[in-house]
Design goal:
This protein is α/β, with parallel strands linked by helices. It has 16 helices and 18 strands. The strands form 4 sheets. An 8-stranded parallel sheet has the order 9-8-7-3-2-1-11-10. Strands 12-13-14-18-16 form a 5-stranded antiparallel sheet. A 3-stranded antiparallel sheet has the order 4-6-5, with no helix packed on it. The structure holds 6-O-alpha-D-glucopyranosyl-D-fructose.
Length: 568
């Protein structure tokens, strides 16, 4: 059999550069700030850093709208700063992967301004997706869009260009026009750009919405769900007709030509298990792993801002299905948080008092890190950072939240109701500055941070947690260490126990020599659990409570308790 690829027992740490560490006092994090803080990541023990976008950008969507793929935004530094960061990462034995956003560019990218200004028939017109207005409608008026699709960030997915009388497609904001991947020139330009970064020394790519790059060229109207006014275009672009052809071409033209083994991750909203297997079965030579969203879409109604409590049995069913579905082929990412998700301790745990907070944060970490797949830690998660106390709409920065607010207000929805949804699910929860210490701006900046730091940094911060062996940080460090030292975590079979229990998450991992049992109480009350045979008094590998004591049958788990046992 082929040797196990290095990324199967690696842990990835995601950095959102804007909010990690600011070296020059302008209130925005930067590359030198990251370089200065690398020792934090060495102590934590992670293997790979994934940087959210640092390329030149008008920052309509915080850098996910790129206007130059081969440079660094002056806000974050220079290419020389980037090379120094990369060398410092490599010198510490870690690797660095770039965020690759090629479903769309910024509307300020020269590819798009050429496409727009050259008009129909111009040399780069076909690099983007242009269509005429709906026949019989007044161009530029509501309803005249080429189809009824809504954008992910509210409003129609089309914007009218007066000069040419045509519309361009944007699945995200109007400043993020979608590239036309059916055009081979576009694909060749993307391949060349990716090779340029690999030659510079980066170790791979996290590929933004890469399962949305191929659209059904007919662009048919979508169904209008009860929740919205626009049509749902996703059947025409989620894992669209030519997506595997384009991803396999990336492998052939870029990844396979490179001498080092890379990490390639496909971020894929709406991907099914069947599709994920196709993308990540090594025999098909497409990608190493997917990053999918099913488990973070269980606790809301038709709109993501319609927050509802999680049913633990739904979470187990979802994660369990993915474990089983990729058991013999393919690979998945394991995560609770990223820069688009509210903080997990506030979402599936309890951030209301210090003990419940540390317990629930470490319980959640234990459950996640003991699954099969590659674990991801999002900056601050290793401290148990929580959602922010946003008071009014003025506290939000994210285009998704601001557009949603405007749209809902225009529909007459009550302001407090909208704010409740934004507080629970808004992406800015993940984007408040990293909490390094208890000083004024948490050690993030000497200036004024672009978004306020969470006031809880006075007691939740890296400095305090490093000094406390019982902290969330040290629990994450131990979990990451286990990933490196226990082969059963990488390859062992996964078996879900107690699928119908609404309070306790339980499973085993097993290979030919070792078996692990994971028990986790997802509630703030004691929970009694009947053990499977033969686990009584087995060795304790890890727990998140003081004096955990031996495993009895039945066993009473304390509030938010998690423990891992090993046999033999
Ligand atoms: O958070 C979401 C909106 O509710 C997701 O649908 C998210 O937009 C989707 O997972 C794609 O995310 C990625 O691409 C976006 C960017 O805004 C996100 O930050 C990025 O992670 C467009 O580039």
């Amino acid at each position: 059999p082929a040797p196990t690829p290095w990324w199967k027992n690696a842990v990835v740490y995601q950095i959102y550069p804007r909010s990690f560490a600011d070296s020059d006092g302008d209130g925005v994090g930067d590359l030198r700030g990251i370089t200065d803080r690398l020792d934090h990541l060495v102590r934590l023990g992670v293997d790979v850093l994934w940087l959210s976008p640092v390329y030149p950008s008008p920052h309509d969507d915080n850098g996910y709208d790129i206007s130059d793929y081969q440079d660094i935004d002056p806000l974050f530094g220079t290419l020389a700063d980037f090379d120094r960061l990369l060398a410092a990462v490599h010198a510490r034995g870690m690797r660095l992967v770039m965020d690759l956003v090629v479903n769309h560019t910024s509307d300020e990218h020269p590819w798009f301004t050429d496409s727009r200004d050259g008009g129909p028939g111009g040399p780069r017109r076909d690099w983007y997706i242009w269509r005429k207005p709906r026949p019989g409608m007044e161009p530029g008026t509501p309803g005249a869009e080429p189809n009824n699709w809504g954008s992910f960030f509210s409003g129609p997915a089309w914007t009218f260009d007066e000069a040419s009388g045509e519309y361009y497609l944007h699945l995200f904001s109007r400043k993020q026009p979608d590239l036309n991947w059916d055009n081979p020139e576009v694909r060749r330009a993307v391949h060349a750009m990716m090779r340029w970064w690999l030659e510079r020394g980066v170790d791979g790519f996290r590929m933004d919405v890469v399962n949305l790059i191929s659209k059904d060229p007919a662009l048919p109207d979508g169904i209008v769900h009860e929740s919205g006014r626009h049509g749902d275009g996703s059947p025409s672009f989620v894992c669209g007709p030519r997506v595997h052809e384009y991803v396999a071409e990336l492998h052939r033209e870029v990844f396979a030509r490179h001498p080092r083994t890379l990490l390639t991750v496909g971020e894929m909203p709406g991907v099914t298990i069947e599709e994920a297997r196709l993308f990540t079965d090594p025999a098909r030579r497409e990608l190493d792993m997917v990053f999918q969203f099913e488990h973070v879409a269980l606790d809301h109604g038709p709109s993501k801002f319609d927050a509802r409590p999680l049913k633990l049995t739904d979470l187990k069913a979802s994660l369990g299905r993915w474990q089983a579905g990729l058991a013999d082929a393919g690979w998945n990412s394991l995560y609770w948080n990223n820069h688009d998700q509210p903080r997990i301790v506030s979402r599936f745990g309890d951030d209301s008092d210090p003990v419940a907070r540390a317990r629930s944060a470490t319980m959640l970490a234990t459950v996640l890190h003991l699954h099969r797949g590659t674990p991801y830690v999002y900056q601050g998660e290793e401290l148990g950072m929580a959602n922010a106390p946003f008071a009014s709409i003025d506290d939000f920065r994210d285009i998704e939240s601001l557009n949603h607010y405007r749209e809902q207000r225009a529909l007459g929805v009550d302001e407090e109701r909208i704010l409740a949804g934004l507080r629970a699910r808004g992406r800015d929860n993940a984007r408040t500055p990293m909490q390094w210490d208890a000083t004024e701006h948490a050690g993030f900046t000497t200036g004024t941070p672009w978004i306020p730091v969470n006031p809880d940094h006075t007691h939740v911060n890296a400095e305090a947690q490093l000094a406390d062996p019982g902290s969330v940080f040290h629990h994450y460090r131990r979990l990451i260490d286990l990933r490196h030292t226990e082969p059963v975590l990488t390859d062992g079979d996964f078996r879900m126990l107690l699928p119908d229990d609404e309070r306790v998450y339980a499973f085993t991992r097993a290979d030919a020599t070792t078996e692990l049992l994971v028990l986790a109480n997802f509630t703030g009350e004691p929970a009694i659990v009947d053990l499977p045979d033969g686990w009584q008094d087995t060795g304790l590998l890890l727990a998140n409570v003081p004096d955990p004591g031996p495993l009895t049958s039945p066993h009473t788990l304390r509030p938010w308790e998690a423990r891992v046992h090993r046999r033999p």
